[in-house]
Each structure stands twice: as C-alpha cells, then as structure tokens.
Amino acid sequence: MTNSITKSNSQAAKFTAKIGDIVEGAVLKIGRNEIYLDINGLTTGIVRGPELVDESGEFTNLKKGDKISATIIDLENERGLIELSFRSASHKKAWDILKELMDKKEPVPVKVVEINRGGLLVRWNKIQGFLPVSQLKAEHYPRVEGGDKNKILDKLKQFINQTLTVKIITVDKDNEKLIVSEKETITEGAPGMQHKPGDVVEGKITGIVDFGAFITFDNTHEGLVHISEIAWQRLDHPSEVLKIGDKIKAEIIGITEDGKISLSIRKLIPDPWSKIKEKYSVNQEVAGKVIKVNPFGLFVELDPEIRGLAHISELSDKPVKNVADIAKIGDTLKFKIVSVEPADHRLGLSLKGVKQK
C-alpha cells in the first residue's frame, strides 16, 4: 500500500464524519474490485465488493482524479481505512433522479422484467417499478373479452424483456415505491380530430376491459367509455351489456390536450329513474329476479332498466346469518318496495311480510 492510501493519526483526528454520512472524495486508485478515495485530504476511504453497485449510473467509467460521493458504512476497517459504499449513496441518488424526472414529466425508458395480473414489473437502472395494466397505451392493453385474468396474463407475457417508454407518476423513496405510466407519454393529440365535447359519434366496440369499453370511430379515432358511463344501472363488468363488434353511438364528454377521448353511452339514453315514481311507489308489491347475492343483501332486477336492493335486514323477521340461505341467483320472488330515491338511483326492497306463491 502506498502512503497516499493510508491515513495519519493527525489526519484522522480532523475527520469527524459518522456512519451513514455521505462524503465526497477524489479517486486515488482503481483496482479490480475496489476503489480508493481521498476524502478532502483528511483520510482515505475504500469502496469494495458489493458496495461498488451503482443504481444511479453516476459511478460508471470512473477514472483517477474524479470527484464522487459515497456513504460511510464503517469508520475504520481491518486495514485502518474508512469503509465506503457507492451502493448506498447511489441508491439515494437514483431516487432523487427519479423524483426530478417525475417533476419534469420527462419520458424514461424502462425494461419489463416480469408480469403479474395487475401489470408489468419494470426496471430503471437497478430500481424496480410497477406499470399497472390500466396505464398501458390503448394499443398495448390486453383486450380480452370478458376480462379473463388468465388470458390477460398470457397477453402481457409478450412484453417481458421489452423496453417501454414511460413517465413516472409516483416516487416514494421511503417505501421504495415507483409507479410509471405508458399512457402519460402520449403527447401527439388526436390527429385530424374534428369533433368536440357534446358531439355524438358512431363507432364499433373494439375492446372491453374491467373499467370500460373502447370505441373506434371515424376509422382512426378511439375513445374510452368508462363503466360508469355505459348504462344507468350498476354494472359489475361492461360485458354484461356490450360485446366486441357492437355498433354503438356515444357522446364525446371530454378530449384532453394529449388526445385522450372520453365517451358516454348512457347520456344518449333517457334516465329511467327520472320517471320511476310513475312506475313504482313505496309499499307496492313487485316481482323481481335475484341477479346477485352479497353478504349484505340481494340485488334484484325489477325490469331491464331498474334494479333494487333488498338489504339483509329486510330479508326476514328473524336474524339472517347467510343471505344465500334466503335466495339464489335466478330466483324470482315477490318484494315490497320500502324506499324510492330517484336522485341517487336507489330503490329499497323487503321480503318481510310478503307472501310468496
């Protein structure tokens, strides 16, 4: 060891940093698996083995004399040197860079390393992030009719080892949480778009997903109908009322600066709840078909447009432990209407005191 890579007692006395501090040093010597740094002329530090890992890319291609930051992990090792880490310092630096990229809304390339049913696990340098399925571009979204999770997973496999350009939407350094979006990189707008919010367009259903349906219109434009804008009744999945290939009319309810088009089907359909009191009233007995059994009650279809809820407390005069003991999907029963709330699209039903044939 040369004298330049040792420290004297007088130098060490002036060095007051502690473990965990980030210090700056100049590269003195680069070995096969270790790098020596001069720490402000006061002492010498060494970075070796796994502590050479560089997540930020800042320490690539170092040469003698370069100034660089490192984290102290031991004030004196077995050789009397300050033990330093690039891995710890670069980890912090990498998250700082990610935060800056997010603030500037700059696109970054990420590599897809794994997939799950929720989306893609991606890597930027050595930091892992997550790209939710809902944040894929429309052309990359796995359009599986019926939303079969296993089929979606199969379609996502094509992205493994691919590089995608994304924007960062969440950086949480403390919890090491990185979330990115491919959709956010769309900046070209909608080329040739002649429509505006309020216009009615006619197109074809080209994709059905859990949160809505895609409609292609004018042969080139595509918009999304969110599940809440498909029908007036509550839907568990768009496939309950739509299928791929259906021709449909929809109203444009929004066009963003980057060309994302939001559509509504239900705005073109008269709200059946606006005249519900002409059809149903409190204390009226009605026949309804059970379409869903939940722990808190039964969802009941009174007609193709109106559905109501028979809460568990209204199913029997005796305590009900299991709603499934009262009825099953497909059963048609007689109910009494106990509440009608048109503004909230709610209708309450009861089985209590109603004689079944």
Describe this structure in words.
The chain contains 3 helices and 20 strands. The model is unreliable at 1-13 (pLDDT under 50). The protein has helices spanning 9-14, 86-104, 149-156; strands spanning 22-30, 34-39, 43-48, 67-74, 82-85, 108-116, 119-124, 127-132, 163-172, 177-181, 200-209, 212-217, 221-226, 247-255, 261-264, 285-294, 297-301, 307-311, 332-341, 346-350. The protein starts with 8 loop residues before the first helix and ends in a 7-residue tail after the last strand. It has 4 domains: 3-92, OB fold (Dihydrolipoamide Acetyltransferase, E2P); 105-185, OB fold (Dihydrolipoamide Acetyltransferase, E2P), CATH 2.40.50; 200-268, Nucleic acid-binding proteins (OB fold (Dihydrolipoamide Acetyltransferase, E2P), Beta Barrel); 275-350, Nucleic acid-binding proteins (OB fold (Dihydrolipoamide Acetyltransferase, E2P), Beta Barrel), CATH 2.40.50. It has a 5-stranded mixed beta barrel. A 5-stranded antiparallel beta sheet has the order 8-7-6-9-10, with helices on one face. The longest helix is centred in the N-terminal third of the chain and has 19 residues, at 86-104. By secondary structure, the chain is mainly beta.
